[in-house]
């Protein structure tokens, strides 16, 4: 990446775009809702069970003008989900400003490990043990979605739940490859701790992107 393009990326005028697609939101509060997804490359959080590891290296994904991303997005849906990778690796201010100017609703899915930039209608915080979320993201999160890979993740979930606002919706979601083992654990936990809800990756059950 040459210096001029790198400067534009640093400003958020361009973003390393991995993919963009129109589909059904499969997880969390808005599951079942039609939405346009913008997947931004770049992530150093390093979850070993990540199902989009190809997003990690930002250099593999072409720097794309933010205006072009917005032009594509507005053709499909009024709900735009920005995901990654870790989208907060980059400055989201220009992207969300332009999306909001088109009357679109802005959602983000983030680990919260970096400074919160952009204007968001909905923040889905999915914290990771390797890089904990900032206090600002935790306090502003609309939903907390903790991925359950093993029993220790219930402890971690409670730690993170103590950091979000009282209005934040709490979800436990089985890691896909471990779902047969952890779903019974999650069901039992939610029944004993009803402040939590179960989130499933319904798009995988429906066999859609």
UniProtKB/TrEMBL annotation:
Binding annotation for [4Fe-4S] cluster: 43, 47, 50
Superkingdom, natural source: Bacteria
Residues holding substrate: 24-26, 39, 83, 209
Gene Ontology biological process terms in this record: tRNA queuosine(34) biosynthetic process
Pathway: Purine metabolism; 7-cyano-7-deazaguanine biosynthesis
HAMAP family noted in UniProt: QueE
Assembly: Homodimer.
Protein's name according to its UniProt entry: 7-carboxy-7-deazaguanine synthase
Native species: Seonamhaeicola algicola
Organism placement in taxonomy: Bacteria, Pseudomonadati, Bacteroidota, Flavobacteriia, Flavobacteriales
